[in-house]
Amino acid sequence: MRIANPFKRAAPTTSVSTAREPDVSGRRRRNIAPKNRSRFTIAIGLFVAVYGVIGGRLVMWGVAPAETASSRGASDLIMAARPDLVDRNGEVLATDIKTASLFAEPRRIIDPDEASELLLSVLPDLDPKWLYRRLASEAGFIWLRRELTPGQQQAILDLGIPGIGFRTETRRFYPGGSTAGFIVGTVNVDNQGIAGMEKYVDDQGYRALQNTGLAVDTELEPVRMSIDLRVQHIVRDEVAAAMKRYRAIAAGGVVLDVETGEVVAMTSLPDYDPNDPKQALEKDRMNRMSAGLYEMGSTFKTFTTAMALDSGKVKITDSFDATKPIRIGGFTISDFHGKRRVLSVPEIFIYSSNIGTAKEAETVGVAAHQEFLTRLGLLSKMQTELPEVASPTQPKEWKQINSITISFGHGVSTTPLQTAVAAAALMNGGKLIPPTFLPRSREDAEALATRVVSQKTSDQMRYLFRLNVADQRGSGNRADVPGYKVGGKTGTANKVVNGRYSDTKKFNAFLSAFPTDKPRYVVLVVVDEPKAEEGQVYATAGMNAAPTVASIIRRSATLLKVRPDFGEDGKSLLVSY
């Protein structure tokens, strides 16, 4: 479209120029004004919409309950629901409860000094200077005390202090207290798992769920564990009684299903109550069964004998000369109660002969010895759900002297739980099954199992286990429980003190299985530094750890669905009734 330029027109006639100028400017106003009005309307609409949303949210938050008014991100974390932990029978081991926590909004507090005095009348353990500084600050929100009792909450409400409020939090509660403390674990003040199976649950993805806010007010499926709370109570009760009776500094016990690898019960004393997690920081409160490393003493003769038999170089009918001590590398290896004669393989086992066991290891060889213990999982870190697991120690270089001392349980440190797991492989037909604190079927266990010894070796070890308890000459005869065919091996190890083996401080253990004709469970009890009872000269494992195992089996066998077998005499007695 062409428009003539008025500045180039030849005729300077005023009437012409004045007649065209209004026409051009009028067209411009008609073309431009509608567009400006349209843009202005859109801008006003957007402005109203944005501020309308902001105003609406402010009104919504203003009328919302106190629980959702402040620190929304923190609230999502502290209100996050955790799944219950339950035992194999559905009994609750850990659950959530609601508690009130005290907060302040200092900007709304009129007189910080008066508010401090009033709060101290209900919570006298608070630091006055700390409290005053907090209340006199310019902060918008501060925590003053987490997890109040209902009485404390009501007393503070009665004070009527402006700027003081409560937030409902989720707190973890453990109905069984210290019964299964080390297994269940505990959480921190923000309800996040920091130990035991509580930490395992977080590591499996719950922590991510919690951090994204998806765990708030959510019904989560309970986490079922392999623990049987009834058996757990029995084990802890008997271990605590042994610790007191034998004046030991510590003790522990575990019950393991040899067919599935499930840990049915496990305790370590001194323990702690997860409801008061500060106890876990006290000296000597640690999970000795999975996180403690010990030289397991003569219980290791179980593995040396199994190695010798499985190698094919030693038969159960063979004998070894235990007449004289073994002298090697400046050390003398002798027997505690030496028979000073030739001993058969069964006699070496039931008399717990260091000399005979060392000669079994010599027959097999150093390299094969190390390989066998590695195959049984005794020299590697155990893989299981519990986070608190220690890594075993062994010599950097295995020599003949190392193989000899390790054959009877000195020179290698491992955890008691690993010892029980390795023993289970010798009892269940020769298959090593990783331990678990979660339910596991036999089919799943079979898929995970690794054959470590032959069925024949397993049968022979079951025979030796039973012989050591049933024969009155055996070191484990105090573990016998009529009707349950208990078998096992004692272990009395000298503890290392300041780099030397002590003659007075012992670490005792009894490694057992029952019933030995078809083993279902391995039971291991350890007693740390027991003292001899009145009338006894020595505090050996046969005198304290073995009787404790017997008490555990006697009380728990029926709960574990193991029926007693009293033989023909027992059947006749039942018929007579």
Task: Give the C-alpha Rg.
Answer: 37 Å
Task: Give the second-level CATH assignment, the architecture of the largest domain.
Answer: 3-Layer(aba) Sandwich
Helix content: 40-55%
Mean pLDDT: 87
Spell out the CATH superfamily of the largest domain: DD-peptidase/beta-lactamase superfamily
Examine the coordinates and then state which fold CATH places here, giving the name of the CATH topology of the largest domain. Answer: Beta-lactamase
Count of domain modules: 2
Strand content: 15-25%
Cα distance, first to last residue? 124 Å
Based on DSSP secondary structure assignment, what is the total number of beta strands? 18
Structural class: alpha+beta
* Poorly predicted parts: 1-22, 65-78
Q: Please give the largest β-sheet.
A: 5 strands, mixed
Looking at how many chains there are and whether they match, the oligomeric state comes to single chain
Number of helices: 19
Shape: elongated
Query: Given this structure, which CATH class of the largest domain is correct?
Result: Alpha Beta
